[in-house]
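Section 5.1 Outputs to date
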Amino acid sequence: MKPLFKQLPPLQTLTFFEAAARHGSFTRAADELCVTQSAVSKQIKLLEEYLGVEVFYRERRQVMLTDDGQELFTEVKMMLGQLADSCNRIRSHVYSKNVTIVSTVAVANYWLFPRIARFNMEYPDINVNIYATDEINEEHCRKSDLGILYGYDQWQTNLTGHYLFRERIYPICAHDMPLSEISTPEDLLNNRIVHFDPLKWRWLNWGDWFRYFGIQYHVPCNALVFNQVPLAINAALQGMGITLGWEFMLKDMLENRFIKIAGDFYVETGRADYLVYSTAKPLSASACTFRDWLMNDAQIDATRLDAIVNNTDVQLD
């Protein structure tokens, strides 16, 4: 099999092509690239000779993409964009004031983002960037400075892990939502349930939750279903039903009386979320500062959350 570089035209022809296609002009592309118009024309000609087709229609004051040119432009624009993003991430590693952390969408939205806002008040010279994805895996975490992974602190790759918070899941609803009497988990079924899409949701769902209490449950055909935690939580906040709420996301909503816990029971799976990072490369001083701050804040927050859930008095800053 040929090496990749032998299957591609000269890479410089692609950057010249992208500029000319974006501007619709060899002259404006030349101005952007700080070369002459004839230099752009020459590179485009080389590209067309390599491909064996024309990529532009030449008109008097502008150039227009051919069908082949449009197809190539779509691919080249995406390829150069991805390459630029990778280079920017690598460059940011050198700038020690930048810290990148990857997490799921729910953790980023309900747990991580409020903490970064507080951290920035204490350390305004450190920039913490969040990359949120529900497709998170160990590779994502190794490529970032830090990551937040869910599991048992047993990783397949070389990752260091620090405990952040347990997985405890409560039934929750809007604070002012009227409920029928709930003395057992099965009583929840007398109220409307807000579900997670079983085809999209990778974590515990209502069927799993009820199974912990020995209850066999199947999602009804007319169920209200969402594929993301924030959507299900918003539905609950609007009084549309009871949904599952992970303990890590509840503190502010409970404290502000936006939600209430529906019943006196919960499921604790034994899993937890961990702050992880690669053992193969040293953390920057800024990443170490953020790691230590985040771990300390998580420990303090766990005590406060227990007090709120159990309705005991505690001083909340």
